[in-house]
Amino acid sequence: MTRAPRNRTITLTDNERENYRRKLLKIDNPLSLEQILNKVINADISEVVDLLPSRFVDLLFIDPPYNLTKTFNNSSFKQTSVTEYMGWMQSWLEKLIRLLKPSASIYICGDWRSSSAIHLLCEKYFIVRNRITFEREKGRGAKKDWKNNCEDIWFCTVSNDFTFNADAVKLKRKVIAPYRENSIPKDWVEEESGKYRLTYPSNIWTDISIPFWSMQENTPHPTQKPEKLLAKIILASSNEADVVFDPFAGVGTAGVVAKKLKRNFVIVEVDEEYCLYAEKRLDMAEKNHTIQGYYDCVFWERNTLRDIKSNDTRSKKSRFLQPMLVGAQRNGRRYE
Ligand SMILES: C[S@@+](CC[C@H](N)C(=O)[O-])C[C@H]1O[C@@H](n2cnc3c(N)ncnc32)[C@H](O)[C@@H]1O
Q1: Most buried by CB count within 10 Å: which residue of 10, 49, 51, 268?
Q2: d(CA 253, CA 190)
Q3: Which residue intervals of 24-111 are DSSP H helices?
Q4: Which atom of ligand 1 has the smallest separation from the CA of 251?
Q5: Distance between the two ends of the chain, CA-based, in angstroms?
Q6: What does pTM read for this prediction?
């Protein structure tokens, strides 16, 4: 079948499947951190969690099957009661605690059906710090219900000693009503492409695009998380060289973004096909460190690609961006 010219969905050839399959880690006895670092483990997390080392995780990102009936390639998850979903989560979550450093942060994703179970479990095991809600703008409206347009991410820590780099996750937005004091712009700057303000992020994220066919990160996975979303979490809650762990890795978004941002990763996924896509994406990240929507060390609002490009090629006048641009060029960051 011929693809639409703008379709950039990642595919796998038979040759790639064979090569990437050889890279996957299968484990049946306890392994050290060196043996698992920056590897894709093809396994059921419940079967291998006891074989992983203690206290190696700086950032735990969990994106489990939500409490929905959903097919993931060769397996499927069946919607159940909140209580049963909670029991299922508890069966693996309490075993993951041993893997965490005392300074670790934990992020757990869910939709409205799973959120209450996640909250109660998080409260049992961790210090609950916040609930992020992100706008998940995809799909048609529902005729007999409100369209489900958001998801939650619960943010927790093991202790009160934890990393939070707020300056690394600033948002660049257009100023709608620019205010001046004594004719001088108040907290905003004018660039050739418009007037902008840099703000600290809140717990409502409306700047996230769900991967779709014309995005270069897109794969056939039905619930792949956007790289931009992972970039916010990883930049805020880890430092370079830290270890990011994802026990329900899908096509490896957490590992890919960790690699792009110079962190280490360990990821586990039960489905071999998804592991192969993760390997391919990790391979692609060797050469391409760009993250859609994150340029010049700031997160841009959705659909601002034209502004970003014109900013890059024409203006470079921005007072607050100039030092960041220099840093980005030094790091070899390129624009797409
Ligand atoms: C919501 S998806 C994760 C998507 C991922 N965040 C990404 O961006 O690609 C959940 C994943 O968990 C995997 N999974 C389900 N049960 C699992 C288990 N017991 N151990 C490991 N992976 C599992 C599914 O195959 C699915 O790919």
Answers
A1: 268
A2: 35
A3: 33-36, 45-48, 82-96
A4: 9
A5: 27
A6: 0.90
How many Å apart are CA 229 and CA 244, to the nearest integer?
Answer: 14
The Å distance, Cα 101 to ligand 1 centre, comes to 23
CATH number of the domain residue 165 falls in: 3.40.50.150
Which residue of 269, 274, 291 sits with most ligand 1 atoms within 8 Å of its CB, as the best mutation to test the pocket?
Answer: 269
Query: Does residue 208 form part of some domain?
Result: yes
Residue 166 domain boundaries: 14-171+195-304
110 in ligand 1 pocket by Cβ < 6 Å?
Answer: no
Q: Which residue has the higher pLDDT, 106 or 80?
A: 106
How many domains in the chain? 1
From residue 29, give the alpha-carbon distance in Å to each of 52, 92, 96, 317: 9, 18, 17, 57
Residue nearest to atom 13 of ligand 1 (CA): 248
User: Which protein residue's CA is at the shortest distance from atom 12 of ligand 1?
Assistant: 248
> Does residue 18 lie within any of the structural domains?
yes
CA 255 to ligand 1 center in whole angstroms: 13
- Mind listing the pLDDT tens digit for each residue in 290-321? 999 999 999 998 877 666 666 655 444 444 44
- For residue 226 and ligand 1, the question of a CB distance below 6 A is answered with no
Tens-place pLDDT, residues 24-59: 999 999 999 999 999 999 999 999 999 999 999 999
Ligand 1 mean position to 294 CA, how many Å? 25
